[in-house]
Amino acid sequence: MATFSTAVYQNEFLPDQGTDVHAIVTVSCADAGAAGQSGQGEVGEIVVVDTSGSMIGPRIEMAKLAAQTACDAILDGTWFAIVAGTHQAFLAYPRVTSGPGMVRMNPQTRQEAKRAIAAFRADGGTAIGAWLLLTRQLFASVPGLVGRHAIVLTDGEDYNETPTQLDQAIRQCIGQFQADCRGIGVDWKVSQARKIAQALLGSVDIIPDARDLPQVLGTLIRQAMSRGVADAQLRVWTPQDAQILFVRQVSPTVEDLTHRGQALNPLTQGYPTGAWGDETRDYHVAVRLPAKAVGQEQLAARVQLAVGAQILTQGLVKARWSNDPTLTAQISPQVAHYTGQTELAVAIQEGLAARAAGDDRTATRRLGRAVQLAARTGNAEATSKLQRVVDVADAATGTVRLRRDIDKADEMALDTASTKTTRIRA
Amino acid sequence: MTDARPDAARPQTVPSPADPCLKPDPPLPDRRATSGGSGLNAAEAADDIPTAPLAPPPPPDAATAPSQTTADPTVAADTPTVPLNPPPPRNLTAAPGQTSPDDDTSPDDDIPTAPLSPPPPPRRSGRAARPADVPTAPLTDAAASPGVVWRPEPVAALGHPGSATCAQCGAVVDPDGYCTQCGSRAKSPREHYAQAPAAWVAGVCDIGLCHRHNEDALALRASDSPRRAALVVCDGVTTSQDSGQASLAGAEAGAEALWLASPQGLSGIPTSAAAAMAQALRAAVRAADAAVVAATAPDSPNPASATLAAALVADDTIHWANLGDSRVYWLPQTGQPVQLSRDHSLAQLQIDEGVPRDQAEASAGAHTITRWLGRDSAQPAPSLGHHLVEAPGWLLVCTDGLWNYASEPAALAAVLEDLGRRQPATAEPLALAQRLVEWADQQGGHDNVTVALARLDGPPDNS
Which of A132, A302, B215, B321 could form an S-S bond across to A237 if both were Cys, CB 3.0 to 4.6 Å? Predict the structure, then answer.
């Protein structure tokens, strides 16, 4: 049985008339077990492989190998399906035309799936929205699945759909399944893939070299299979007359949850967090309260993790008003760290967007700020990725020069990794 | 606020005047407050009893503590309380003017007042006429039908029952201790509790507004037949560790010991009764001290310590004891309100030297106490005394969280009267104790507040 625990990091002291409370709430899960094995219910896994014409050559071969590796990693008993995507979506396995569009994994279905994958041919266009809608339909065809996870593999932009079509498809899939998106090469669009991954509670990354595909997919499947808690909800209770300024996941990646909240009752918002393995996630919660008299104390938020109706852990965010500046002036190191990391993500994305738009001045300024923040918050990965895009003159002041010889893959890697955060150094 | 002992370094904060919980410390007017740290007993002895000729000769067993000389049981046993008794003992005749044998307020076991203190109030009529050796009605009832003794439920150190109601908005309090609606912090059972062992005895112990922990404690016992009560309050010293637990243990152990050790239905002469009660009070102090020590972590570098104020009501007499600056007051409906106990504090030392009370009690280190319960207390020797109740009124045992805002007995009596007037007919002890706590909060609630009250009717012919 999985166990959850919570730790709250904050400076609960507010100055006289102070209203805004910030806290980092760390939620940890232990003993999650394997997906579908916890007795909560069965889980499903769908692998979506781009088989469009651009995949022709070694890329499709590596994609086939990767999909077969994924089949090996899916645990026996797990419901699964393989989708092949072009300008249309095809159910590659199981080859059924009615009834459940998924089967349970066992040695026989694994072999059948691998044979079906081996028959993939690269041809046609790209309509990712259609792939997502078929995936949604397949999951829905198996009643009672508590965990639904998909991997979407693409090497190109969503040519054969309008942005509206893709957005509508994504919207229909929200809450239906989780999806990790991986882009092969440099001809796909990070913003598209990120939109899908963020909406569907997954990750996004670049696979510059197709030879890495089998290893990446194997890792993703193993990770999905290790998430024994199929679906958990972050709940934030705030008192009457309080306002949630924002709720943000800040580790392992920055994900703004503020507008994904669902009112569970007048005082409690529920935010989806998807499946959990043995892991730790940090949330930054900011609440605005009516100021109370100096000396008063009150609860600013109860931050809970719930599975189904059951609340498994709770962290208390508090507020105490004081006139002692030595108490109220301190900023929690955790809050400061993640505030910096969040700004880092924004600075990278804005800097890259400005560069793409030809606004080198803004790009230099924003990426310079990113270099400064990465150095200050000890984010070595961001620092290293930034150095492939800018020449750093002085990290402390954020003085940089845009490089003229930027590798497209490096730029995309910086973009996809922009939301990755480091945890605070002890 | 019992915020320090002389040997404990006070944390220096920069107070902000607008914050009700940050009290600025006025400059130290008297160097003795700091020098008291080393030679505590010597200093106190010197200040407490400055004029040697007035002090009675110390008995052999109290030689190390000159200030405690009259705390000896043998002295207590001989202390006269009524004029009908045999001649007063020598040691009191040797100190004329300090204690009048028929003086209602004369402490019988302790050096009562320093020479600079005003003379005791004149004795009031009626007292001496009462036959001391005739037991009153409740005492005769005692043997036949012992009263039902009320025992308090143990106070949980932490946690909420989960069904409590928010004091701010009336919604349910979550087991996490905060209101489910407005988020207000609810007080835990340790932070606020009340006891009402009889209709005429009750008390409230409360964290106040500014402290993080409630280090005050309260323990009460009472029976209606015979009409007896034991009231004990303790105030844990904030700068020592485990003081909240220790004060709770001390108060509880003290009340229990006092209740069990005090003689019931004693039909002897009042002097021997007083002596027996003094013995019981000393036993209670010893028990409280042992409990405080037991509640202290063995390796604590700063062992828990606490004050104690105790009152035992029996046979229309208040027998009291105190250590530190928690107090016992008698506030009669008519007549002179009096503070029965006498603080062991630097403020009291200043008062003894002639510094006006309000000035002394507002000075830096005023709340530094010179006697306390606890492992590092050299000698937890209480001051003791008794007082015969002649008219209806309130016995009040309290911590400094209350008397900080009304120290003079007359001022405290006025507050009590004012609060009682708002609900005159039902001056019920529990409600009144709660109102006194709320009143202290309204004055700032800087410290933990503990109020124990017993409504006494006085002898039947007077009630």
Answer: A302
